[in-house]
Amino acid sequence: MKTLLTDLQHSIAQAPEHRHCHMTCEMVYVKRGRARFSIAGVDYTAGPGCLVLISPLEEHSVRALSEPYERYFATLSLPELTRAFPHSALIGVFRNRPAGFCHCVALRGAKPEADAIFDRLCREYAACLPGARQMAEALLGEMLVLCYRACPGNFAASRSPSAARVDQVQQYIEEHFTQELTVTGLAERFFISPCHLTHSFKEQVGYSPKQYLRLLRLAYAKELMETTDLPVAEAALRAGFADVNHFIRSFRETYGVPPGKWRNRDV
Fold it and tell me: pTM score, two decimals?
């Protein structure tokens, strides 16, 4: 189970505001109180019964607005989510950012159900009972269905052959982003024209294949710099950047500061 849910906490404790991103999916459910979420440059106010969904690529921060701020916080492995729900559009809320996507979903009348789901998830996570992973998958599936019912616009409207092909390309990029990849090479591998791949991918995922590849590499390099003592150049190379200067330019364009300054920031 803990390979799928990499962390799960129920908390009312305060935490300092800190902008960050990581290579896991993140889900925050607000039970009581209110908080301000800033995600990829967009601000949301989340109150009781709100579910906040954050992809591995999105830098974000949280600030409590009222006390007590009671929430459930979960991080999930994207590869394990894909294995748990292999043919489901539900996990698109952790991967895709189509036009009009909303990170903060108000579950409205489903709050009692959501409260119960997260309470059960916490118990299963803590106890590690036989069948815990299957139970966690069932509860997560139920949670995502509630999310779909509250905000269907966050989910792909069609599961056409073209959408399925984009899913395959997206998953391939996620599994091989540290290697040398090109749009032309991806198009040849999946028997699709580069132009059609770029258009379909951008429409479904919210980024072009090239942008998505770069963001994955940046997020991984950022995580390496935050969790290891690797030099900036080595983190860039391990993340798939062949040119360190290109990495520095891309990092500054995306996060507003060069990687060395970001690493030495006060947190």
Answer: 0.87
